[in-house]
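queue> pop job 88
queue> type: inverse folding (structure -> sequence)
queue> payload:
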C-alpha cells in the first residue's frame, strides 16, 4: 500500500549533476540575490517610475483636454442641430456628424469632467459658428431649444391641420 508514495519520491528526487558539467567551486559563495536594502531600493525606484509615467500621462491628457476646451469648432455658419436622447455618446456622434465639434472623444471627456455643471439635454439647438466645446456644453445645458412656428388658418378641419403639420419643415426633418 506504500508503493505509490515511493514512486512519487523517486520522481521528485533532484536530478544528479551531468557528468560533463564542471564540479561546483567550493570557495565561491552562493548568490542570494540583492540584499534587503537593494531590494527595497529597487522596489522604490520602480514605484517612482510608475508614478512618473502615470502622472505624466495624466498631466499630458489634462493639457490636451484644456486645449480642446477653447479650440474653435469647425462649424462655418450658425446651424440648428437635433441632439438625440442616449447620453453623451449619442450627442457627440450627432454633433460631430453635423460638423459642430471636431473630436467626439474630447467632447465626451469634457462633458464627463464638467458633470456637476448640469446634464446634457436632448432637443434641437442653434449653434453659433466656430463654437468651442465649452460653448457647445453651455448650450446643451442651459439654452432654450429651437422653436418652430406654423400658422393654422381658421376654418381648417382636423384632417387638413394634420396634413399641414406633417408637411411642415420640422416634421419632415429637412
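queue> result:
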Amino acid at each position: 500500500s506504500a508503493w505509490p508514495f515511493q514512486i512519487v519520491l523517486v520522481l521528485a528526487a533532484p536530478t544528479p549533476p551531468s557528468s560533463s558539467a564542471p564540479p561546483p567551486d567550493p570557495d565561491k559563495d552562493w548568490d542570494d540575490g540583492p540584499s534587503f536594502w537593494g531590494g527595497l531600493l529597487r522596489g522604490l525606484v520602480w514605484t517612482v517610475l510608475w508614478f512618473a509615467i502615470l502622472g505624466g500621462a495624466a498631466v499630458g491628457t489634462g493639457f490636451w483636454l484644456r486645449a480642446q476646451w477653447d479650440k474653435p469648432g469647425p462649424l462655418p455658419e450658425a446651424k440648428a442641430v437635433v441632439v438625440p436622447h442616449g447620453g453623451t455618446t449619442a450627442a457627440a456622434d450627432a454633433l460631430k456628424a453635423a460638423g459642430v465639434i471636431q473630436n467626439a472623444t474630447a467632447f465626451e471627456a469634457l462633458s464627463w469632467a464638467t458633470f456637476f455643471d448640469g446634464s446634457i439635454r436632448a432637443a434641437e439647438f442653434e449653434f453659433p459658428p466656430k463654437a468651442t466645446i465649452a460653448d457647445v456644453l453651455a448650450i446643451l445645458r442651459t439654452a432654450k431649444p429651437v422653436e418652430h412656428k406654423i400658422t393654422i388658418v381658421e376654418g381648417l378641419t382636423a384632417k387638413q391641420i394634420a396634413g399641414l403639420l406633417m408637411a411642415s419643415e420640422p416634421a419632415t426633418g429637412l
